[in-house]
Design goal:
Elements (H helix, E strand, L loop, with lengths): L2 H8 L2 H5 L16 E5 L6 H17 L3 E5 L6 H9 L6 E6 H10 L11 E17 L7 H11 L3 E5 L2 H14 L3 E5 L3 H10 L4 E5 H9 L3 E6 L25 E9 L4 H16 L1 H8 L4 E2 L5 H21 L5
Parallel strand pairs: 1-2, 1-3, 5-6, 5-7
Antiparallel strand pairs: 3-9, 4-7, 4-8, 4-9, 4-10
Helix pairs in contact: 3-10, 5-12, 7-12
């Protein structure tokens, strides 16, 4: 099911979701197993974080935590399941950049409000996006990319596999002053294969997804969108290093619940996840992951989400991209 097809089927959620329900309170919470909805297939980074930390959280909360994969429609299928469940804190969802920050910019009449219908709990991990080329590309810098496009008077072919990466590629084109031809993919693997094979000038990917290709000498990163350089790859410049002070953006995975869940339950969940991430087991697990631990609790996570949304909204406005 495509995102557009799904919008029609989920539109009727509003009346159901608005019905009054009895709220549990933190003193008696949790009273049954907790479910984490993951809007991706098993084996994804979001899935791995949910399963590992769900197990640690279950020990302190005293109830099993079950991960349920609900991929499809850019997170809308998982969001529908969240909104149809009782808002008592026993159903959680992994929120990522696309459903929490990008779709509110690009989708008109989105059947959920990313700032009211879901409540931030705590972050899992975050990291920058990166602009990558094949290892033997003649482009050694983003300045090389811009110079070639201007010299040859043609667009740069940029691969992406989500609306968020499309907006980042648009932002790059605006920043460099060159036209961009967006080449969309269904996933990062095929895009990376075509990039390595020379079918694309440039690709936009989350950094963790291409780190092994960079280490293996198959891809070269021209820049990352973090505020500071990655400690494992200190030679890769940030966009800020290159003189683009405002060009900062992140790919993230965080835990959310229904917006109607009481704050005391959200805080109890956030405290449990933070304790799990700070435990020896949690630290050891996080050290094996490329992403940076996202130690953002409730309000701080919500503020971060709003800031990322505003970045994407600004890019869309500058590019004249209308919500559809």
């Amino acid at each position: 099911m495509t995102r557009r097809q799904f919008l029609g089927s989920v539109g009727a959620l509003g009346a159901t979701a608005a019905a009054p329900r009895a709220f549990a309170q933190a003193a008696g919470y949790p009273s049954k197993p907790i479910k984490i909805l993951v809007p991706f297939n098993a084996g994804s980074g979001a899935d791995s974080y949910s399963r590992f930390f769900g197990e640690l959280m279950s020990r302190t909360l005293g109830q099993p935590i079950v991960v349920e994969n609900r991929p499809g429609a850019s997170g809308l299928i998982a969001m529908q399941a969240l909104r149809q469940a009782p808002p008592d804190g026993h159903t959680l969802i992994v929120g990522t950049t696309s459903p929490m920050c990008v779709m509110p910019v690009l989708v008109k009449n989105l059947p959920y409000d990313a700032f009211k219908d879901v409540k931030p709990i705590h972050g899992f991990a975050w990291g920058p996006a990166t602009f990558v080329v094949k290892a033997d590309s003649p482009f050694k810098t983003l300045a090389d990319v811009a110079a070639a496009a201007k010299r040859d008077r043609k667009s740069i072919n940029v691969g992406n596999y989500s609306d968020g990466y499309m907006l980042l590629a648009t932002w790059l084109g605006l920043t460099l002053g060159v036209p961009v031809n967006h080449v969309p993919y269904k996933g990062g693997t095929q895009m990376q294969t075509d990039l390595i094979g020379g079918s694309l000038d440039l690709g936009v990917n989350d950094f963790s997804g291409v780190a092994d290709h960079i280490r293996g000498g198959r891809l070269r990163a021209l820049a990352i969108t973090d505020a500071k350089r990655h400690p494992m790859f200190p030679d890769i410049p940030t966009m800020k290093d290159l003189g683009y002070a405002d060009f900062e953006s992140y790919v993230f995975a965080s835990l959310y619940t229904d917006g109607r869940v009481p704050d005391d339950i959200a805080n109890k969940l956030a405290d449990s996840l933070r304790a799990a991430m700070l435990s020896p087991e949690g630290k050891n697990f996080l050290n094996t992951m490329t992403g940076t631990p996202m130690m953002m609790h409730t309000k701080e996570l919500g503020d971060f989400q709003r800031k990322e949304y505003e970045r994407f909204k600004k890019v869309a406005d500058l590019a004249g991209i209308q919500a559809k």
